[in-house]
Amino acid sequence: MVGKLREVSSKVNKAELKLFLEVIPALEQCSVLPFGEREGDILLFFKLYHPKKEELRYVGNLFVNCTGKPIEIVRNINELAGFDPDEQIELYEFENGDIICFQRQLQPHCKTKSCRMGEETI
Q1: What is the pLDDT of residue 122?
Q2: What is the pTM of this model?
Q3: Which end of the chain is more exposed for a tag (fewer CB within 10 A), N or C?
């Protein structure tokens, strides 16, 4: 399959094919099941933004109910990032809704770039 994708990619774009592979730990180590269990579950990918470093990095994915509300998965998102379960975060939709970017909630006085780049702990 990879060979076929590489062949098509090379013909069309004259570019190198890049594959993304995520290894799922054993089920007993997972706090969230890796596969959607219910009808209407969708797969979302999460990227964490660090304002001070101006860095965006992938932290994981979750199957969520397509009619659910963001507040229902905040604890799971915080777990992916290594934050406390009740950490206040800001969510942003990216790339047609399947990639969600998030960051720790900025303090009201820290909305400007110069403030984010300062010594504030974010």
Answers
A1: 37
A2: 0.62
A3: N
